[in-house]
Records
---
Amino acid sequence: MDQRKESRFDLEFQVRVWGVDRMSQPFAELVRAGNVSNSGAVLLGLRAKIRPGALLDVQHGSQRAQFRIIWVAPGEAGIRALSFEPCIWGVAMPKRSEMVGAG
């Protein structure tokens, strides 16, 4: 059973990400964000070598927020928005408690 606090949606967006890689070198890339929730996503097509715990800036359209890297796999990374950051995906996503049959 899924224990996540927020529902995930099978949406995909192109986003710009930038930060500092494992070698302390700045980078910027265009990647895809998928499996999104109000506060997180999975980055797909990532080439930079990053590490969990580091911060990334993510921009979708004109919206921008800072995220923490939660996990890393080849070409992918799970990210979570910092607690004070808004949802930048531009779609209204219900909280799990607002969904029918959630619980």
Note: Residues 9 and 56 are 21 Å apart (CA to CA).
---
Amino acid sequence: MKFLNESGCPAELFRGEIQPGTMHTSLLARVRYRLSRIGDSWALTALDGSDALKDIRREQTKDDYGTIEPDLPFPRVATDVICLADAQSYSGPTGVINVKLIAGPYTMSLRIYGERVWERRANGLNISPPTLIEQLPITYKYAFGGKAPTSYGELPWMANPIGKGFYLSADEAAKHPLPNIENPDHLLAQWDDRPAPMGFAPYPSTWSLRQLKTTTTDSEHGGLTLHPEEGMFDRAHPRLSGKKVQPGDPVIITGTSIAPKVAFTIPPCPFEMELRLGNEHWRKILDLEEILLDLRSGIVDLSYRKLCKYSFVPHQVRTTILLLCPQIA
């Protein structure tokens, strides 16, 4: 299969034979936008020249906000939404900041607290008042999780081993911190509550919220069964993956350092794939696979993918062409 990229944007055609005689291709394309403020409104402006993306993600990138994995041939279930941002109070120092992200069918709200500890009182352990904060990175370091000491070494909370607030006894919890980031619908009440970690950052495939969806074990006979169709290659938090975000859907983020409120709509897909097999031709619009919002720099990356399969015919001329949609070109 020959690949021609006539879009001017970074793209890759992954090819392979999964079943004998049946070829599979996975076409991935990316485009970068700047999030621009125009009065009280926001808009996405496609970047070109030196500011535009030069390639798909070939290498892993990692910083304090999370790990962005390289692009793979394997598709996500639907659309991942990943947001790198700081919670921000716009009314001065406060003990609580509320943050919310809406993207098409997704909604995630976060309650951001200042530092708190479990205080021992006559009725047991209670939560201390939060210290005052103005800004906090929205990372899993501040969500529920962490590692608890045992006589055999540290025991990680596998849904988020880098977080805070996971304890195995009341004595261990006393005078020690709670997570800063919580689900406002399921706030911690007892030291031994075990909530799912919350956040907008990329969620590692090795952590248990994803593993519980994509693997099953046979307790009677042993062995592990993988279920890639349940999101094995998804990258976002499980609550921000598995559903489709469509062109025209709203994206709204409140309570972050870029602005009290950011709102824009998903633009039309700029890409069209033309598949040529011998004398037959097809054209298809790509599907939105990932929305990566880096609100630290005001950059929005959108990635698109289209899968296809076809029977192998010896000596057949086969070509995939990536084009800009007519309304974009």
Note: The helical segments are 170-173, 208-214.
---
Amino acid sequence: MTFTHPNASVSFAGLDGDTLQRALKPSRLEEEVLRMFEEFRDPLLRYFLSLGLRIHDGEEIVQDVFLALFQHLQAGKPRTNLKGWVFRVGHNLSLKQRARGGRRERLHCHEEAAENQLHPQLNPEEQFVESQQRKQLLEEVENFPEVDRCCLYLRAEGLRYREIAEVLSISLGGVSLSLGRSLARLREVNAQ
């Protein structure tokens, strides 16, 4: 009997059902990468959008990151801090994409995100005030130096200081100073 996988032009001539199932079953490595994809897809995409990429470009970079992760693990390379590794590779790919012109106005992207995050339980006036406060904070963040913006967004995605330092290739002290400076500026804006 001949079986042909629907997604490939591979023929499995002479295989019984059990053997075919084993042949098509994802490996442990594939399962691990798929699990990590599910865990980190949205945080990576949000981070790429914060860097000014279009959603389409961000989604392509996410796919590239996980293909690179699969190849990295398949080659038996180190598994230490894979979350940091994924964000670092994604960060580097997104900077390359931006340099090729796949960038749009970050502020516009954030305004759309702020509009979609309004609380439905607030009345229209409260929603407007909240929207204006978010817009003001996002405008302030857009005026931060790029390293400060990246540190802030990576921290918002749950990366530890050490992971942020690794992703951005800066010192641990640099991350701490950057985040302290950024949070102080945001507190000032919020107090106004």
Note: Strands lie at 2-4, 11-13.
---
Amino acid sequence: MSRRLYECVPNYSEGRRKEVIDRIVAPFRSRPGVHLLDHLADADHNRLVVTLVGQAVPLQEALLESARAAISAIDLRVHQGAHPRIGAVDVIPFVPLRGVAMADAVSLARSFAERYACETCVPVYLYEEAALRPERRNLEAVRKGQFETLRREVSLPERAPDFGGPGLHPSAGATAIGARQFLIAFNINLDSADAGLARSIARTIRASSGGLPCVKAVGVALADRGLVQVSVNVTDYRVTSLHQVLQMVRAEAARAGARVVETEIYGLVPASALIQEAARDLQVAGFDEAQVLDLRLADLPDRNGECP
């Protein structure tokens, strides 16, 4: 029987201090049952994004060990960065990958959230498919006002955490834990120093403002580079492609006399998302992903324990 695997993409509010990043990532490097696929730190966002694949039990143990390292080293009272955040460990999403359904990911997220709050003393908000309140499905609603606002409003019934509390952890804030489908983090950088332009474009393209479906976006300044960024999450690339997002941002930027200088894919991306873009640009009629050699090789059966 194949192993039951989840993807997990914890985000931490640290993208500048290498020694802290190393301590946060260390628990994922050698634990059996957990595979560290990627980790990216961004100084402007002051954020670390880690991509893991693993089984439920070892994933939870590694996440707790990593969280303790982050909580001991990150103080949100002095933290500054372009990315919205409510916690030292900001979000922990579980994504069903192999041999598990979304219901399994929801169950895992909820049980882990309760344990996490108890063992770390950091309160938890459940979001997306794991949300216990419909108004908390969207992460942006949970993170409204960020750490600074949430610590003032946490005593309000509508902002009380799902586990832990009653207040926030004084330096580590809170953590959002959820279950969701695969997400592509797609950043688009513009040759402008006008952060207001990036925010305006983000507001235009995101689904919540009537823009592109399955798109979330914020505008941020990349001060060290003299650029601004439209930071996008595509929650279902089969509904809205990366190309559609890019074309809309290009058009909106052009209205203001700006242009796209580069894009970034932050973390991992399904091969099918990029193949879809390539087939469209090449105008390939009736293209099927089964025509991609590398994908066919990956699907070959393993016989007698030998790699094909």
Note: The chain has two domains: 5-179, 184-269.
